Amino acid sequence: MAKQDTTFMDTIVSLCKRRGFVYPASEIYGGIGNTYDYGPLGVELKRRVKEAWWSRMVTMRDDMVGLDSAIIQNPQTWITSGHVAGFTDPLVDCKKCKARFRADKLDDARCTEKPSRTPVENKCELTEARAFNLMFKTQIGAVEGSGSVAYLRPETAQGIFLNFKNVLESSRVKPPFGIAQIGKSFRNEITPGNFVFRTREFEQAEMEFFIPPEQNDHWYQYWRKERHQWYVDYGVNPEKLRLREHAKDELAHYSTGCTDVEYEYPFGWGELEGIACRTDFDLKRHSEASGKDLSYFDPEKKVRYLPWVVEPAAGVDRTALTMLIDAYEEDVVEDEKRVVLHFHPEIAPVTVGVFPLVKKEGMPEKAREIDQMLRQARFTTFYDESAAIGRRYRRQDEIGTPYGITIDGDTMKDGVVTIRNRDTMLQEKVKVAEIESWLRHAIRAWKRPAKKAASAG
Ligand code: ATP
């Protein structure tokens, strides 16, 4: 991540704070380095990212089931998975400024004494690298001691492996099938940063796809394509996305292949999601360590085997950040700068703005009625009657609301409203009774605006 477009990231961070997407956590106490809280719009954005993932990965498929496993598992889980011994990053200390850096990410780090420089540029006095385990330790129960040590999960995947047999026996599934899970993970990152791109507490959306070993290549290719397409379908600019296949020497010793879906952030290319072939490594290790047989018996072929696994593992916060950055555009409307977020309508935190043209002639009452009607139909709306209509449109553009409904004289007379499209700014007259079906159709038919003006990103 060499190129740093800090101005654009500053714009995003300030928009997030100002409009209620993301706030620094514990702000009234001075914050707690690189930790964030999601505000009213941020929580909607993240919820929609998760829904978009879940509906595509679970609801729309007949070969997938969901799971919600515990954050704190038996600590043996992490010994068996290799995390206790090997989930480390190389850490170096600076003897001069006392800061700590990831030895493999020195180019991204900033010296605490001279934030304009990297530790190398500042000729920091760095120690030899040593392994630093990223797992957060905690204690279980009232008595402290080595027997009560537990870990906050650093990934959700292991909870899926631990429940493989439970799911197999309680649901009518057979390989090839997947178990999907969304949940919090925790990593004591040495250098969190780039806003919510890398934090110590974050949400992951992970899926383990259990397959007969001979289908490994087929499903690896399938999930690479499918996961890349998901981002494109939800509006991310394909020109800023790429699939990066890991070189052989980057692969874990048990893996036959791994690809990252990467996005070109203002700070350079970064991983959005990893699609990894994990073979039978996890089920085998957990079988051996627990003494429980985690194999599958195929009743048709009359063979017993340990399924192999292809794992797409995405970050919810990173996806939300990516969609926000990618959606951002500045253009000029009526000689004024317009900030607009071109979110996919299913990702936008608010779907419809509802505006009475003026605060009289029964328009606010009618607008409230339409607002309620849309809420009952499960649309997220925002009612706004203050300021000139143009200003109200701009306020919704800035948070990415795709449709604006104006209640005017025609509504009172003929029962028609004006619906304004955020991307084209075109307006259309629609009968009140047809608003709902109009919106559903528009959401389904949405296309990413073909030509975005050069935005700050
Ligand atoms: P990185 O190389 O960026 O540290 P990783 O390869 O360790 O990521 P995985 O273990 O493959 O990441 O986790 C899957 C996904 O979880 C990542 O692609 C990313 O979207 C998300 N993720 C991982 N670590 C963090 C973090 N500290 N903050 C936010 N999201 C994260």
Structure description:
The radius of gyration is 25 Å and the shape is globular. The protein has two domains: 3-74 and 143-324, Bira Bifunctional Protein, Domain 2 (BirA Bifunctional Protein, domain 2, 2-Layer Sandwich); 343-445, 3-Layer(aba) Sandwich (Rossmann fold), CATH 3.40.50.800. The chain is built from 13 helices and 23 strands. It has a seven-stranded mixed beta sheet. Strands 20-19-21-22-23 form a five-stranded mixed beta sheet, with helices on both faces. It has a three-stranded antiparallel beta sheet with strand order 5-4-6. The chain has helices at 6-19, 40-59, 76-80, 83-86, 157-162, 164-170, 216-233, 281-290, 316-327, 363-376, 389-399, 409-414, 435-445; strands spanning 22-24, 36-38, 64-66, 88-93, 100-102, 130-133, 137-139, 149-151, 177-186, 201-211, 241-245, 257-265, 268-279, 296-298, 303-305, 308-315, 328-333, 336-341, 352-356, 381-383, 403-407, 416-421, 427-431. α2 crosses α9 (316-327). The structure holds adenosine-5'-triphosphate. Adenosine-5'-triphosphate is lined by residues 155, 187, 189, 198-199, 202, 204, 271-274, 313-315, 317-318.
What key attributes describe this structure?
single chain; 457 residues; alpha+beta; BirA Bifunctional Protein, domain 2; Rossmann fold; seven-stranded mixed beta sheet; five-stranded mixed beta sheet; 13 helices; 30% helix; disordered C terminus; binds adenosine-5'-triphosphate
